[in-house]
Amino acid sequence: MSTSGFRWSLTTKVSIALGMLTLIAGVSFPQGQQKQQHPVPTWNDTIGPLIHERCVSCHRRGGVGPFRLDRYQDVKRRSHLVLEQVLERSMPPHFATSDIAEMGNIKRLNDQDLVDFQRWVHGESPEGEGSFEEYVYPGKWGGKEPDLILKPDVTPTMPTEGNPVWKAVSIQLPDRDLYVRGFTIEPAAEQPTKHVLLGFVEGESDLNLWETQGTIEAADQLIGSWAPAYPMWELPEGVAIKIPAGSTLIAQLLFQPSGREEIPDFELGLYLSEKPARQPRWINLEVTEFEIEPYDEPTLGTSHTFESDVEIINILPEARFYAYSMKAFLAEPEGEESVLYYNPRWDPYWTGNYQFTPPVLARKGSTIRSAIVYDNEEHSVLNDGQKPKPVYSGHGLYDEICRMRVLVVDRPIH
């Protein structure tokens, strides 16, 4: 990837493009000559509803966001900062898309939203008249009381400064078979907790607290993932993961130091099915051994062909700091490939929770293929301007991973 020559920043290019859209949106020519300026959007008629729908679930008092955006004065005071973030599409931080499926209730900003916000900021950010339906925090557990509430066996200690860290903890379960249809997390320190990956080992575990590098290899089976601002991890009706009696849960936390002492404790809420249901399984699309040469930009991946009709429920990508984009393609038998999942801005510190609602049907003979793009040039995050060295596959912090897990369940026979 060349870095030579003059380049406008992403913000500059988007601002120019949206400025042209703003001009077009704000001017009409009803008689070919007469110009009529559209009114500037106001907080109460346009911007407030937009912010409350897209941003306030995180940017509220006690939320994961670093500051509040639920009030007019909060947004007006930071309007140029917010504008920069939305023009770069850095916020809301939901970068993944799909050409053939909906991913939960993730709400992104469209081009018209960006035009409206830019016109509002440059139009002196009027408050306007009237009111709108504001976001209401649903409360603990999102307003849905779990069937079983658990806590980790040991409360991990976390640093106050530095880069995010991953740590895993064990959680004891009742000694009976459990059928899990969903789970969510209530962290004690909401802002620093960025992600939780949940799995289990069959039988007792002698591990109770250990540092990982973003992957819980100790787990026999993965359950799913949780991230703030994403929907609760939840399986379709009639589907549940069986956890055999005597198993131990393993939860991996991604924790962002906040500059002050935080207690990274949490409660885990499980939503259970009382009767046996269809049981899903994870398909592992993984390249286990590879090397990325200096100045190389390879695309790595693998594929899987389904032997029966399945429904694709969830996708969980996994890579490190040299990866910068990833895709999953789905091809029907003798059909063209479609993009099932595309993340153009991979960040291992913000991995998300990608559920398809409704699940995506893949017929017998369909193939799913992963493609992760890596970049081992000087400008890569870990190289930081230094001469690149070979990068190898592995589970260390400075190694790389090429893995995409896909949760599927057999389609019911009618």
Structure characterization notes:
The protein is built from five helices and 23 strands. It is α+β, with helices and mostly antiparallel strands and 414 residues long. The strands form six sheets. Strands 3, 5, 9, 10 and 12 form a five-stranded antiparallel beta sheet that branches.
Layout: helices, strands, pairs:
Elements: H1 10-26, E1 27-28, E2 36-37, H2 43-54, H3 72-77, H4 79-87, H5 111-122, E3 148-150, E4 165-172, E5 178-187, E6 193-201, E7 209-212, E8 221-226, E9 233-234, E10 241-243, E11 248-255, E12 266-272, E13 281-287, E14 291-292, E15 299-300, E16 303-305, E17 310-318, E18 323-331, E19 337-343, E20 354-362, E21 367-374, E22 391-392, E23 402-410
Antiparallel strand pairs: 1-2, 3-12, 4-7, 4-11, 5-9, 5-10, 5-12, 6-8, 6-11, 13-23, 14-22, 15-21, 16-21, 17-20, 17-23, 18-19, 18-21
Helix pairs in contact: 1-5, 2-5, 4-5
Total strands:
23
Q: Which value, in Å, is the CA radius of gyration?
A: 23 Å
Note the run of SSEs as H and E.
HEEHHHHEEEEEEEEEEEEEEEEEEEEE
Which percent range fits the helix content? 10-25%
Low-confidence stretches: 1-18, 20-36
- Calculate the mean pLDDT score and round it: 85
Which structural class should the secondary elements be placed in? Answer: alpha+beta
Distance between the termini: 51 Å
* Largest sheet: number of strands, sense, barrel closure: 5 strands, antiparallel
The general outline is globular
| SS element count, helices | 5
Amount of beta strand? 25-35%
